[in-house]
Amino acid sequence: MNNIFKYSVFVIISLVIxxxxxxxxxxxxxxxxxARVLYFHVPMSWISVVAFVMxxxxxxxxxxxxxxxxxxxxxxxxxxxxxxxxxxxxxxSLWAKFNWGSFWNWxxxxxxxxxxxxxxxxxxxxxxxxxxxxxxxxxxxxxxxIAGITMPFFIFIMPRLVETLHPDPIxxxxxxxxxxxxxxxxxxxxxxxxxLLFLWVxxxxxxxxxxKYRKSxxxx
Amino acid sequence: MYxxxxxxxxxxxxxxxxxxxxxxxxxxxxxxxQIKNLENKE
Lengths: 220, 42
Prior knowledge:
The complex is a heterodimer.
Chain A: H1 3-22, H2 38-65, H3 68-99, H4 108-129, H5 133-161, H6 181-219
Chain B: H1 2-7, H2 9-41
């Protein structure tokens, strides 16, 4: 990845931070300025979905080809997905403190993301429990596929099936986006910026894991 | 001091978030450089 890409990520996210915090937003009942969290909270959630889908995709590729690089990519994507999922939970929880009165309310959204974190937590526990490389890669790939299939249910379906205090999703139940134009532009720029940031971090993570892997091969 | 923070709270938040972001970016850049060095050594 060249320097232009990295500095573009820096500029895009800096712009999102500045415009997202400084530019006025329309008065949204019961939310007010707290609605600005959507510029950061929703992209975190979006990236965790992208990362978990990537993890699933590389797991399938590993089972097809048995190439260890795919397992490394699947693992790296799951780790980053987990990190961004924690960030989505933390930003959501901070928002909940000021809007709902407490950090954690066991709202359906919070419960479903908590279960998702547990599912991927178990994935890392599974990986660390197996020493044999080929067996670890095979079993964790199967688990990553199962976890990846359950993910849309916890993020997209379950919170829409039950009553929740969480504000309407960006694309609401009637399939429309109800958002002020300026907010929508900042939000979409934020999605783009954080997705590019994720791709950069993913690239670093995979390269680092490949270095570790090659070093372990030399030592063996 | 408290009044200043209360009236300019948005700018205080902006300043802190920008500092954190610049720190994260610098960390990623330095990590990128270190990984490149290790790859070249191989």
